[in-house]
Input
Amino acid sequence: MPQVSNLRLFIPANSFHSLAAPILVPGRIPFARCFPVFLPSYFKKRKPRLFSTVSCSYSKKPKPNFKNKGNSRFSIRRRSIVTEGGVEKDKVVDLAMGEGNKKKIETGEDVGFNRKRAEGRDAPRKTLALKVRKLNPINTISYVQILGTGMDTQDTSPSVLLFFDKQRFIFNAGEGLQRFCNEHKIKLSKIDHIFLSRVCSETAGGLPGLLLTLAGMGEEGMAVNLWGPMDLKYFVEAMRSFIPNAAMVHTHSFGSAPSNSGSPSKPPRNHHVPLVLVDDEVVKISALLLEPRIAAPGPVESGVDGTKVGDISVVYICELAEVKGKFDLQKAKDLGLKPGPKYRELQLGNSVKSDRDGVMVHPHDVLAPSSPGPIVLLVDCPTESHFRDLISRESLNSYYIDTAFEVPEGSKIVNCVIHLTPASVAQMDEYRTWISKFAAAQHIMAGHEMKNAEIPILKASARIGARLNYLCPQLFPSSGIWSLESQNIMPNQVKSMKQNVLRKGAESPAENLLKFHLRPSASLGIDTSCVPSKSSTLEIIDELLSEIPEIKDASQRAAQFWSSYQPGIPGETMALDVERIANEEPWLHDVEKPSCLENISREDMEIVLLGTGSSQPSKHRNVSSILINLFSKGSIILDCGEGTLGQLKRRFGIKGADDIVRSLKCIWISHIHADHHTGLARILALRRDLLNRIPHKPLVVVGPRQLKRYLDAYQRLEDLDMQFLDCGLTTETAIANFSSYDENSTLFAKQSRMQSISLRPHDLVMPIFSSLKKSLKEAGLEALISFPVVHCPQSFGVILQAENQLNGDGKTIPGWKLVYSGDTRPCPETVKASRGATVLIHEATFEDGLMDEAVARNHSTTKEAVEVGDSAGAYRIILTHFSQRYPKIPVFDEAHMHKTCIGFDLMSVNLADIHILPRLLPYLKLLFKNETEDVNSETAALV
Output
């Protein structure tokens, strides 16, 4: 089939600018079929002999040199055929010639950027090799440890680390695992295998980010073995839409293929026999698959549910190698062996020749009888139906021991059972009876229980949050994490549960970083030495006052400043405060307060920054996510990076976060990079569960078209109860075309073959578009408009425009306008979109001195972000998406920050407070004046 190397589209010259934005076509719909929607108006207005053409061609050019600040650019040219004196002349105008940063943003032209990255051609191709380690079966240190992701917020499943001195195994990788490892210095590069007990957002939400981080480590990148039931293939297929194939080549799925239709799947051969996954000289790890079974009279096996995708759960059995008997030196000498390498060979189980007479010496000649190695079970039994299948498995009979003192021959002693089973199942009488069969085992209950309720899992972030709350509680409210009292759990109950930890064979609640030692055998048992203790807010504030004594006065001044703008302050006091503030900060009154803020109340709108970091989560900043809280009218999420649900629960508490998710009106995603959307599935799954028995409509997700491929593939795994709308169909041009759409318009003659086969995309997306429009109306919004930006293919920013209001005089005033840039270089589209904005939230990944890196990665510097807002006349600017090289506060120049504020995780900006937002900047700088931590050394420690 011939390839077109150059495409020209003829359109009316007077309509060129309205078509300057790309014509965006819904996924899987041929471009030609979209003509009835997008092009009739242009052709109908055609004038003879007066056309413009937009041409796009490709040519190979030398590798961009970013030191020249953006000389590598698209060459987009407009060619107009004009008539002068009856003679046709060509006039060619360069729309963007790539003169880089010499062009000012104020002129409406963009600055230099990385062309390859913008086109999606910058991803290096790697072949990620597995790590090869030399194992040490002798004197191995080993333990299992609870990695408490989600234990304080209940947003995800905890992970479990099986540690050996030369190997690491992790079970489950829920959201926040990577951030947790950064916090507690668990080296990701040491992980060899990841096992999933179920394949869903709760157990695997952190996997995409983890794989991407490993793939980017070092020059060659790293990979791990990924194990899970057959459902894993659907999750891997979904991830391929935004993760390079190389990062997932070492995935292993096991068990039978589930059915999408709900009909029973054919059981595999030896279905009830554990499948051996890993078997080396250190450990053997087997998997026992569980499927839901219906309650039926007669044998349990008689009722088997149709196993669907997402139904399979796994019990993992970890059996350490047997402990070799003590080496008898005297026997070795008597058999003619000299001290040396042959002693080690015998300890490894190999026979050697005697040094004296050449006879073979076998291990049992010099070693005492071996003793079996410790055994750990990880049980994830999500429903009562799965439990019926669990108790029917005869393959577990050899692990059951009725008494801890009399062990039948052939039995295997289980030393520790970690229950990932939810409390609703674990508290069943039948489940308790089943637990008692492991009489010698320590049972660690790691389902969502009432433990660590008041001990944050991310202590570094909580510490900064407490300091910010002391400085300005209006912008940094105290954490909403649930307390023991709110759950009707008395402290003495928790104390008694902790005391059970010391009793062998007892049940104990899992705690963050709790260990159970397996080797050496002398240390076998529970170890609570790593469990973090509770740090009170009072202790954190005392430490702050000792470190920065002047922060106390700063906090008091901030409180006075804040109160001077609140209603109810006497007029005389208000006048004095305003006069004092005007003398101290005259720039606060340089810009007239926009009319949309005249009658604003504290129940109109609040901006909650759930994540303000870039690329990957750090212990101080989560990745991108913003909640637009419209209170009783619902809420909207802009970008939804990994850990978004956990951040919601830290800000609003368990119940409050559920209410927010339940009332969501829309989720908008800027582009396909993982740090902006991998928290989406967890949010959607929770909303599905919360509204399960309540009449409701699917949530509309607006995003780049690549995101639809991911969501379509993921929904084979679990229903997300959503509808997708391409960002390209929410641009100003597309919305106008929808509004002016004439269902009878067509490029083809009526009754023609071309018309009869034409599928109008309008008919496919209009119901979703109407649903979004209705949701926005309910939220008090007039419009949600996406606009293209310069970062990677299909990158967008967004405008949220509130409906007009009536002021105190009964006059109509415009509603507030919020603009979010997404990830971008400074560009005219963002400037245009931000004109008249009440708030511009703009990415500021790099400091001003790193312009070359900002251009190479298609991000903005702090100064560039502020200049975009200044050029557009935005009233206030909030900076976000900071590089993780700035762990706590980014580098910025106060000289051009007169209308700007720095964003922090869980910062909550009420629209009623937006006017005084920049006043906080000097105080923030004071709060972090002693912070000199180098993020590069922290990152290096994790590799």
Remarks:
- Residues 701 and 724 are 5 Å apart (CA to CA).
- The two ends are 48 Å apart (CA to CA).
- The first helix runs from residue 35 to 38.
- The chain has a mean pLDDT of 78.
